[in-house]
Specification:
4-stranded antiparallel sheet, 3 domains, about 30% helix, elongated, 6 helices, alpha+beta
Length: about 325
């Protein structure tokens, strides 16, 4: 059932995304058509049978049944019907798309894709103006026995430079390590009030790129201090709900060990066995300080899987990034 709900949720978001892209595209055709003196018979939000329609000037505006995209219908819009040009009544030919000069028809056709370019520019300008979360170069986990572990790196270290070049984002650190297998790098890290220089030589390994193809890459065995261990319970009747968990709970520990982030929770849960005690903080994450009233409690949950995972408990990560110093 949770998987089915997730599918419909993704389908809903997909329809919204496609509808926005298509409607903006068609709006570009509409605006330039009007500027070029072409009459527009109809502009429809969505496809299918019109549920609601009203007329303003020559254009009929429609709200249709299938919530996906939209369309604009111009007078004399021939599409793949060459003979349709001659079927336009004489009195409508001054408003006909097919009877406009080539430059006007070209401008109308190009306006749709151009509006999509403008939409992209506006969206990314807003993102860069407002800002967006970035995973910092704070180390959340060090693989035991790995290259970083042998070099002396610890969870909680912040990498501030590589070979003297200052960095602060995780992708900068990851990219530098990935591109330099078998080459000695000097990482400058902050550990509390100390600043240490630790040499490390990435080993040559295999890693998936953005296209999900495995490629050669330098690896040192570290992962970022990324997502807070804030959980989402996928539904009532699940093992997590039965144990008393609620969406928005912050996991602070498991079997007496502190939990740093969601990935740390996954690792510690995989090692757990039998009846496991999970420490939870609830009510301390409100944006308003006066509304924060954190309470902590312990939930005991019976693990039946050989290698338990959040998925087997019907728990998912809430996408809450750590910011700044990684303190959450």
């Amino acid at each position: 059932m949770p998987e089915l709900l997730a599918f419909f949720q993704k389908a809903f978001y997909f329809m919204i995304l496609i509808s926005i892209v298509v409607i903006v595209h068609e709006w570009g055709h509409f605006i330039v058509a009007r500027l070029c003196g072409v009459g527009v018979e109809a502009f429809s939000l969505f496809f299918g049978k019109p549920l609601l329609k009203w007329k303003r000037g020559r254009t009929e505006w429609r709200l249709s049944a299938i919530p996906l995209g939209g369309y604009v219908k111009m007078i004399g819009q021939v599409d793949l019907q060459p003979d349709a040009k001659d079927q336009v009544p004489e009195e409508l030919r001054p408003l006909s798309f097919a009877h406009k000069p080539l430059w006007a028809r070209s401008a109308i056709v190009a306006a749709g894709p151009l509006m999509n370019v403008v939409l992209t520019f506006v969206i990314f300008s807003a993102i860069f103006f407002v800002g967006y979360p970035q995973t910092t170069s704070l180390i959340g986990h060090v693989d035991r026995g790995g290259v970083a572990d042998e070099a002396g790196l610890r969870a909680g270290d912040r990498v501030v430079s590589v070979d003297g070049k200052e960095i602060w984002r995780w992708d900068e650190l990851s990219e530098t390590v990935r591109k330099n297998p078998e080459r000695r790098l000097v990482l400058t890290v902050e550990r509390g009030d100390e600043r240490l220089q630790l040499p490390v030589t990435p080993r040559l390994g295999r890693q998936k790129n953005i296209f999900q193809f495995e490629v050669d890459a330098g690896l040192i065995g570290i992962s970022p201090d990324g997502f807070l261990p804030i959980i989402g319970v996928t539904g009532p009747g699940t093992p997590a709900a039965a144990a008393g968990f609620k969406t928005g709970d912050l996991i602070s520990g498991i079997d007496g060990e502190p939990v740093r982030d969601f990935a740390d929770f996954e690792r510690k849960l995989a090692r757990a066995d039998g009846h496991t005690i999970i420490m939870v903080e609830r009510g301390g994450l409100s944006r308003r300080a006066e509304e924060r009233n954190p309470e902590t409690f312990e939930a005991t949950i019976a693990l039946t899987d050989e290698r338990p995972t959040p998925e087997s408990l019907r728990i998912r990560a809430r996408r809450s990034l750590r910011f700044g110093d990684g303190a959450g």
